[in-house]
């Protein structure tokens, strides 16, 4: 089973445990899943860590050249680099620089390759082109199953 991720980077601290538990429970439904992720901070990295934890394989879709430069948090950058070394496969899209279009295309690529999409999503509209809401809408249009994970009564 190929399982993709889309989700918020800025998950409230008091919700991280709930999000991680939801991702772990979702992945536990599959035997050796292939997890698709761009390894962004937040949901993507939590997902990737859990894919590896359940014995799955990690495939990474990098939106562009210079993607590392989009990480403003050094800990998230360190996690990105470590997870990237554990990826079985890495695909880099043809964009020369980070952009909303590159991020949107990476999200669509993940959906196009997935049987199921995990969405760590508060249900609100995207804050920029290619955000979580846009990717969820795209997945539903492609009839890819979407599992939404978000703690009740929590806002970003």
Query: Structural class of the secondary structure composition?
Result: alpha/beta
What string gives the helices and strands in order? Answer: EHEHEHEHEHE
Estimated share of beta-strand residues:
15-25%
CATH topology heading:
Rossmann fold
- pLDDT under 50 segments (min length 5)? none
- What is the number of helical segments per DSSP (H or I, 4+ residues)? 5
Distance between the termini: 31 Å
Overall helicity:
25-40%
Strand count, sense and barrel status of the largest sheet are: 6 strands, parallel
The structural domain count equals 1
Principal-axis shape equals: globular
CATH hierarchy class name: Alpha Beta
Radius of gyration: 14 Å
Can you walk through the features of this model?
With 156 residues, the protein is an alpha/beta fold. It has a single domain (2-149), classed as Rossmann fold (3-Layer(aba) Sandwich). It is 38% helix and 22% strand. It has helices at residues 16-27, 43-53, 74-85, 100-113, 132-141, and strands at residues 2-7, 34-37, 57-64, 89-95, 116-120, 145-149. The protein has a six-stranded parallel beta sheet, with helices on both faces. The relative contact order is 0.21. The mean pLDDT is 94.
């Amino acid at each position: 089973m190929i399982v993709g991720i889309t989700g918020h980077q800025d998950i409230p601290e008091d919700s991280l445990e709930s999000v991680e538990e939801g991702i772990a429970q979702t992945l536990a439904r599959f035997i050796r899943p292939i997890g698709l992720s761009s390894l962004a901070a937040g949901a993507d990295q939590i997902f990737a860590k859990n894919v590896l934890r359940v014995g799955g394989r990690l495939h990474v879709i990098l939106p562009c050249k210079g993607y590392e430069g989009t990480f403003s948090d050094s800990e998230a950058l360190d996690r990105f680099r470590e997870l990237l070394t554990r990826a079985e496969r890495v695909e880099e899209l043809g964009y020369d620089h980070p952009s909303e279009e590159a991020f949107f295309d990476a999200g669509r690529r993940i959906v196009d390759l997935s049987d199921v999409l995990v969405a760590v999503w508060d249900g609100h509209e995207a804050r920029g082109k290619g955000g979580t809401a846009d990717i969820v809408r795209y997945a539903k249009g492609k009839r890819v199953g979407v599992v939404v994970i978000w703690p009740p009564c929590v806002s970003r």
